[in-house]
Amino acid sequence: MVWLGVWLVDRGSISAGTLVLFVLLIQNMFKPSRKIVSEWYKVGKLLASTERIEELLARQPAVTDSPGARPAPRLTGRLSFTNVSFGYRPETAADDDRVRTVLHHITFTVEPGEVVALIGPSGAGKSTVAQLVPRLYDPDSGTVAIDGTDVRQFTLESLRRQVSVVLQETLLLTGTVAENIAYGIDAPDSERIVRAARLANADQFVKELPDGYATMLGERGATLSGGQRQRIAIARAFVRDAPVLILDEPTTGLDPESAGQVVAALRTLISGTTTLIISHDADLVACADRVLVLEEGRIVQEGSPRTLARTDGPFASLFGRAVDGGESPVSAGGESPVSAGGGS
Ligand code: ATP
């Protein structure tokens, strides 16, 4: 265009001003057409996302309220697995015969307020055990019960209200810090939120945020560090005050300092609460009253962390003496598994 314009100016067919005006107008014409192309690209992305959301909404949950299910009363948290076997079922019916049993006849009991650590190699079935408690899946055979009642007899909503979960990756939502702590609670008051944050060692850093508890968190809490996100999750568990607590690798991926702060907060949280801990963190495992070692979906060793640390077996090979002689735990009652002796 410019070449042609210069040639025309040279020949005297148009003036230099006309050429400049022409170039400017051409640019103006291209701007909206470029915008149309980029908007069209966005429409394409939107259509693809809508399809995926539709697919998700159309999925039927595998676990639903059983006929005759009733709301759970306030539970004390006596958790028992009796002869539980389970295998993940492929989504397509054609693959039904390919169900691989992941848990084999698991039986154990956690007394109210007791802290039990599930440890074992990757793929042993630790997370699967934990997922059966709030009924993310139902066992193929055997019974998971809380306070002596099969969890299938409770409505899902009332059961899940009484089981708090702290995972490796905490799901924070776009909203304020206070809203994220009080997530799932009806009519939370700010005093309760601040108290929970204090117990979770989160109050200090929250107060230092630009708007304190009213600070907006980005999607997935991207503006916070891993350790801070975990402490928000712990505060969330404090607010819920559920009688059963599940901690699935809550310190994995954190640097030692953040992990230390998270473990300190968890020590307070698990005190007096029926807790299942899944962790490779020796400090956290040392907080347990009892350890169950899982291998290929079977319980292969059981005992207090201190005793197991001194006994040849899978626990000692996983943790060595790291657990023996650590800090004393705060679990309700019972002999302290790590406070005395150790090391020798
Ligand atoms: P890790 O320490 O790596 O988290 P884990 O002991 O918690 O391991 P699980 O996550 O319970 O083990 O997995 C037990 C077995 O079940 C593994 O073989 C795993 O591949 C399989 N598994 C886990 N989740 C699913 C799933 N959603 N669908 C199918 N198989 C699964």
Q: Tell me the number of structural domains.
A: 2
Topology as a string of helices (H) and strands (E): HHEEEHEEHEEHHHEHEHEHEEHH
The unique ligands bound to this protein are:
adenosine-5'-triphosphate
What is the straight-line distance between the termini?
A: 87 Å
Average pLDDT figure:
86
CATH class of the largest domain: Alpha Beta
The helix/strand class is alpha/beta
Largest sheet strand order = 6-9-10-3-11-12
Shape: elongated
What name is given to the CATH topology of the largest domain?
Rossmann fold
Low-pLDDT stretches are: 326-344
Spell out the key features of this protein:
alpha/beta, four-stranded antiparallel β-sheet, single chain, six-stranded mixed β-sheet, 2 domains, Rossmann fold
Concise overview:
The chain has 344 residues and is α/β, with parallel strands linked by helices. The chain folds into two domains: 57 residues; 203 residues, P-loop containing nucleotide triphosphate hydrolases (Rossmann fold, 3-Layer(aba) Sandwich), CATH 3.40.50.
Can you characterise this structure?
The protein has 344 residues and is of the alpha/beta class. It folds into two domains: 2-58; 113-124 and 150-340, 3-Layer(aba) Sandwich (Rossmann fold), CATH 3.40.50. The chain has twelve helices and twelve strands. It has helices at 2-11, 16-58, 126-132, 156-161, 177-181, 190-199, 203-207, 226-240, 256-270, 282-285, 305-309, 314-319; strands at residues 79-88, 100-110, 115-119, 141-146, 149-150, 163-166, 175-176, 216-217, 244-248, 274-278, 290-295, 298-303. The strands form three sheets. A six-stranded mixed β-sheet has the order 6-9-10-3-11-12, sandwiched between helices. Strands 2-1-4-5 form a four-stranded antiparallel β-sheet, covered by helices on one side. The chain has a two-stranded antiparallel sheet with strand order 7-8. Strand 4 (141-146) and strand 5 (149-150) form a beta hairpin. It is elongated and about 100 Å long. Mean pLDDT is 86; it is low at 326-344. It binds adenosine-5'-triphosphate. Adenosine-5'-triphosphate is lined by residues 88, 102, 120, 122-128.
